[in-house]
């Protein structure tokens, strides 16, 4: 049914980079066989899932939305892919994304922009915009994404679905094509909080293949989503995430969500996190710095595209030609920014300073969580913007992640749940919890989702 739905609507939505009916149906038959053989596969067996094209899949191509990996077939599965396969989920295909997960609109895909099912002239958010669009358009019941600065929560918010960034290290980065390794976090998309928790639980937990994987057990997120109550919980409204830059309709829906929390028995207080306003500039030094290092591996020798290798050119020339043609403008901008910020003479002023800001943000979170159990804010300052509106203005694009970036810099758990519409477009409520407090955001999210 989902393959039929994809065939019917993906011509307009453009959520998928790769769909292969035969491979999907073969996987589904294999699940039937395993079931028939008496294997206990767990609650999601047979449920289809769409993977962001940043997760390696051994039976499907993986491009990270870039020309430089066009046609690459990974020899192995990411841990997320492998665990979901093991649990009997069936892969519907690979979803579109901003190239190497750099962007907030999916317009930076080297292939085509994805569209928001609520209004096809608007963006579905990004960088995991194909995954959000697929779930919002009922092409898939579940999908995966990665959140480095907001790339799960922001697309979830603007497409009216649930998107969760787990605690950093709570979900494995093994087989996730790297953007910024200290920030990248795989997480689930679904149409309700309980479904997201089921997917989260199915792929999370310690992975010896990822050196930054946490050792602790997965927090009990499914149980928390089923509990769905806020009675007696202390909720902090982040004072710094309000005011002028927020669309009036976003502010109105957010205030209603806060009132709902109060009416359900939560104790709401205003909390100040004074350094959160520096998170965005710090992120745009740290993330490009890590990207400039990670993307050095695309050297025309190991994977994908190779340009100008006609026997007359040196390896360096082939590398330069390949990178010039294979990377898009946003990726080049990040590599240049990051190389600059890390270079001798500038390192202390930029990268070093940004890492200090990161520590201050961590202290803000710690102080806040001495007073409250969760923090709330709008997920993103505006609803889905028109395709093209911010394409030539990187700073306007970067602002989409204003409220989501603090939790990335510190590794905290955070979710976006739908909290109503503004002018017919979805608005998201962000709920943030301490590191390893993933269950708390599911518990609160399930109580207030609309
Ligand atoms: N929009 C942010 C960026 O462009 C975040 C991306 C992400 O979370 N992958 O870097």
Automatic annotation (TrEMBL):
Organism, by scientific name, is Actinomadura soli
Sorted alphabetically, the Gene Ontology BP terms of this entry are:
translation
Keyword Transferase attached? yes
The active site of this protein is located at: 52 (charge relay system), 127 (charge relay system), 151 (acyl-ester intermediate)
- Please give the Gene3D superfamilies that the UniProt record associates with this protein: Amidase signature (AS) domain
- Give the catalytic activity: L-glutamyl-tRNA(Gln) + L-glutamine + ATP + H2O = L-glutaminyl-tRNA(Gln) + L-glutamate + ADP + phosphate + H(+)
Family statement drawn from the similarity comment of this UniProt entry? Belongs to the amidase family. GatA subfamily.
Q: What is this protein called?
A: Glutamyl-tRNA(Gln) amidotransferase subunit A
Q: Assembly and partners?
A: Heterotrimer of A, B and C subunits.
Naming one, the record's GO cellular component terms include:
glutamyl-tRNA(Gln) amidotransferase complex
Q: What is the enzyme's class at the highest EC level?
A: ligase
Q: Which UniProt keywords apply?
A: ATP-binding, Ligase, Nucleotide-binding, Protein biosynthesis, Transferase
Q: Which domain of life is it from?
A: Bacteria
Annotated EC:
6.3.5.7
Species classification: Bacteria, Bacillati, Actinomycetota, Actinomycetes, Streptosporangiales
The job of this chain, per UniProt, is described as: Allows the formation of correctly charged Gln-tRNA(Gln) through the transamidation of misacylated Glu-tRNA(Gln) in organisms which lack glutaminyl-tRNA synthetase. The reaction takes place in the presence of glutamine and ATP through an activated gamma-phospho-Glu-tRNA(Gln).
Q: Which GO terms describe its molecular function?
A: ATP binding; glutaminyl-tRNA synthase (glutamine-hydrolyzing) activity; transferase activity
Which NCBIfam families does its entry note?
gatA
UniProt KW Nucleotide-binding keyword: yes
Give residue ranges for domain Amidase.
Answer: 1-441
């Amino acid at each position: 049914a989902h393959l039929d739905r994809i065939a019917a609507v993906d011509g307009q939505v453009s959520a998928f980079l790769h769909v292969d009916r035969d491979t999907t149906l073969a996987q589904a038959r294999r699940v039937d066989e395993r079931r028939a053989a008496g294997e206990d596969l767990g609650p999601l067996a047979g449920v289809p899932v769409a993977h962001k094209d940043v997760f390696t899949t051994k039976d499907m191509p993986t491009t990270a939305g870039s020309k430089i990996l066009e046609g690459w077939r990974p020899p192995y599965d990411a841990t997320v892919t492998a665990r979901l396969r093991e649990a009997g989920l069936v892969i519907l295909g690979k979803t579109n994304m901003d190239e190497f997960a750099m962007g907030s609109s999916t317009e930076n895909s080297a292939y085509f922009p994805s569209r928001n099912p609520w209004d096809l002239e608007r963006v579905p958010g990004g960088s995991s915009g194909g995954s959000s669009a697929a779930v919002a358009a009922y092409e898939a019941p579940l999908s995966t994404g990665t959140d480095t600065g907001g790339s799960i929560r922001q697309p979830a918010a603007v497409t009216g679905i649930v998107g969760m960034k787990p605690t950093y290290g709570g979900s494995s980065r093994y087989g996730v094509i790297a953007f910024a390794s200290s920030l990248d976090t795989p997480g689930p998309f679904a149409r309700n909080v309980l479904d997201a928790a089921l997917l989260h639980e199915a792929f999370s937990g310690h992975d010896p293949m990822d050196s930054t994987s946490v050792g602790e057990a997965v927090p009990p997120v499914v149980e928390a989503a089923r509990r769905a109550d806020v009675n007696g919980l202390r909720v902090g409204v982040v004072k710094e995430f309000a005011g002028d830059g927020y669309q009036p309709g976003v502010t109105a829906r957010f205030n209603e969500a806060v009132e709902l929390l109060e009416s359900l028995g939560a104790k709401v207080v205003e909390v100040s996190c004074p350094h959160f306003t520096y998170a965005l500039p710090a992120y745009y030094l740290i993330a490009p710095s890590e990207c400039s290092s990670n993307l050095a591996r695309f050297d025309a020798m190991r994977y994908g595209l190779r340009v100008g290798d006609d026997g007359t050119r040196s390896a360096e020339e082939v590398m330069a030609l390949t990178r010039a043609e294979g990377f898009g403008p946003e990726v080049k901008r990040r590599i240049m920014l990051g190389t600059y910020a890390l270079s001798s003479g500038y390192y202390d002023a930029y990268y070093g300073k940004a890492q200090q800001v990161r520590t201050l943000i961590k202290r803000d979170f710690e102080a806040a969580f001495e007073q409250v159990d969760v923090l709330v804010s709008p997920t993103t300052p505006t609803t889905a913007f028109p395709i093209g509106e911010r394409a030539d203005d990187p700073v306007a694009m970067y602002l989409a992640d204003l409220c989501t970036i603090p939790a990335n810099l510190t590794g905290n758990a955070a979710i976006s749940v739908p909290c109503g519409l503004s002018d017919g477009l979805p608005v998201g409520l962000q709920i943030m919890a301490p590191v390893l407090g993933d269950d708390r955001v599911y518990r609160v999210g399930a109580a207030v989702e609309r």
